[in-house]
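Writing this down once: the sequence line spells out the residues, with the fold written below as integer tokens. This is how one looks:
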Amino acid sequence: MWRIFLKGVFISLFLWINFMPFPVFSAEPEPVLIGATVSLEGKYKETSFMIRNGLRLWEKEVNQRGGLLGRPVKLILYDDKSKKELVRHFYEKLLTEDKVDLIFSPYSTTLTLVASEVSERHKFVMLASGASGENIWERKYRYIFGVYSPAGRYFIGLLDLMARNGLGSVAILYEKNSFNISAAKGAENWAKRFGLKVSFKKGYESGKAELPGLLKEVKGIGPDGIILCAYPADCFELLRLIKETKYRPKVLGFTIAPALPDFYKQAGNMSEGVFGPSQWEPDERIPFPGTKKFISDFTAFSQKLPSYHAGSAYASCQILEKAINHSRSLNHDKIRDFILSLDTITVIGRFKVDHKGKQIGHNPIIIQWQNGKKEIVYPRKMQTASPRF
């Protein structure tokens, strides 16, 4: 009887030792989860490549420095396919299911407007590192901050150059979405302030369908320059039409597309002389701290030179890291208060926002494609070449 009893005890002990769940103590602290969406498909694909790699580069580097508050950083990035409905879905998922600690914005004003509705409701700080439409900061939101110079200031430099060089008129075409409407409105206002005549201004819904007719109207008027406020696909379409019609004014200025490193590769000889606004350029002569290292590190990491989109994404990481290290907290009200008071220099230049969160410290530059490469032509103190008309 005793043998049977002892045998049962030993069997029970064996099972308990081998199968009883013990508490697991991890040497690694829980990661700081940071979420965002990026566009791996659709109209924002090119720029999102830059943003995604800017974020990933920082993730790698901050973890090499020991993470945030002694915890490793882990990015959770979802593909929004450049669609508003997916942005809304994924930001809700990030905040309610994934339980992220922090977030970054998607690319574009259109998508950031949607994402920030979600983040504001949850009282999460969002650095808008890929959006500059003025209407983002007209909603009395308290937790969203701009990194880019606002869209209305994009063409100040180009219009100043036109006025200084005796060019008197400009036509403005724009895609009817938040960012490009803001950019076109700003271009019109600044053209008038510099004494230029806005001889034609018109928006459109479909570039493929409407740009041929608009270019024909502009040609009949004959302005000194055309400014097109549109995403890259329409910029390339207008260049194709200009080549086809053999009509080209003295000045061509586009948003976004000319700042991309592959602009010459896609536009070929038609890129020659094209102007564009840029928030920053990968030129080692730009005197911001960390610029040279960022250019080198990003190029090694992604096998491409960074555009200003990559620089801005990385700068937003720098700002967030500084806010967390200063407040020693992931509390969003503390982070928000610090960012509101911040006046600092990132890899792309000055960062300072007003009480609405709109960027007021950073100013765009103007680049022009000359002999197959980008040159900075404005402001004068940063020029790598003189503008050509």
Summary: The domain at 32-150+287-352 is CATH 3.40.50.2300 (Rossmann fold). The chain has twelve helices and 14 strands. The CA atoms of residues 32 and 59 lie 11 Å apart.
